[in-house]
Structure formats: structure tokens, C-alpha cells
Write a structure and sequence with these properties.
This protein is α+β, with helices and mostly antiparallel strands. It has one domain: Transposase IS200-like (Alpha-Beta Plaits, 2-Layer Sandwich), CATH 3.30.70.1290. The chain contains 6 helices and 4 strands. Strands 2-3-1-4 form a 4-stranded antiparallel beta sheet, with helices on both faces. Helix 1 crosses helix 2. The longest helix is centred in the first third of the chain and has 17 residues. It is globular, with a radius of gyration of 15 Å.
Length: 151
């Protein structure tokens, strides 16, 4: 019987609009758990969700039948509804930035990625989201124009 097999491990990063610190410590754990659930409902496996007040990192296995853009759209749309459903005044204008970054990760590097995501709060004591994002783009050799990266 023919099979279609794949192992696509991704590191997905996206931020809040204008890097506004919407994702406060009081909702962060529940919010990250919600994002993990959405990723799993898209027939993938979510290894870790983490981040700080203005962005998230997600380590996941992408289903062979789901397009990355469709997954990101579902994550952003669904989580926006979830966060606005908290009906907290400080979250009323919540929005994600339009873009995202996604990188492939080999299975041997998954543990390091999970550790990196777990250390986000410590990491961002000395490095902004923008610095981190640029660093990833540069290390993966992805050309970009600053005028179109931030919104």
C-alpha cells in the first residue's frame, strides 16, 4: 500500500501589531495553551508555545496536508477571537502583525528549539523582539526590507 510520509518541524514566530504588549503574564499561560490546541486541531503536533508580551514562538510538526499559510491564518484568527473574548478593556484592540516568519528545523535540533522557546522571558531581558526577529532572518539567509517587516 503506498504511503505519503513527512516530518516537517517548524519554528513559527509572529508578533502583535506594532509590538504592543497585549499578552500579559496573567493570560499568557492560557493563551499559549490555546494556541497549542489550535495547532493540534490542524492535524499537527505542537511541541511548545512560548513568548513574551509582544510575540509568540511555536515549535510544531506540520501535517503533510496543511499549508503553512493556512495554519498561520487559523492560529491568528482563532486566537484573536479567543483573546478578545476575555472581554478585558486592555485587550479590546488586540491584533497580530500581518506577517510571520517560519523556519524549518531538523529533528536533532528540536530539543534546542524547545529550550530556546522556554527561555523567552530571560532572553528578552537583553534583546528586543525586533532584534531577535532580524537575527533569525539573517541567520537563515532571508533577505527582507525593514519597511515591510513591521506593522
Amino acid at each position: 500500500m503506498p504511503q505519503s510520509l513527512s516530518l516537517n518541524i517548524l519554528h513559527l514566530i509572529f508578533g502583535t501589531k506594532d509590538r504592543h504588549p497585549f499578552i500579559s503574564a496573567k493570560i499568557r499561560a492560557d493563551f499559549h495553551a490555546y494556541l497549542a490546541t489550535v495547532a493540534r486541531h490542524e492535524d499537527g503536533e505542537c511541541y511548545r508555545v512560548g513568548g513574551v508580551a509582544d510575540h509568540v514562538h511555536i515549535a510544531l510538526r506540520l501535517s503533510r496536508t496543511v499549508a503553512i499559510a493556512d495554519l498561520v491564518n487559523e492560529l491568528k484568527t482563532s486566537s484573536s477571537r479567543w483573546i478578545k473574548g476575555r472581554q478585558l478593556p486592555e485587550l479590546a484592540s488586540f491584533a497580530w502583525q500581518r506577517g510571520y516568519a517560519v523556519f524549518s528545523v531538523g529533528p536533532r535540533h528540536l530539543d534546542a528549539l524547545v529550550q530556546y522557546i522556554d527561555a523567552q522571558e530571560e532572553h528578552h531581558r537583553t534583546k528586543s523582539f525586533q532584534e531577535e526577529y532580524r537575527s533569525f532572518l539573517n541567520s537563515y539567509g532571508i533577505g527582507f526590507d525593514e519597511r515591510y517587516v513591521w506593522d
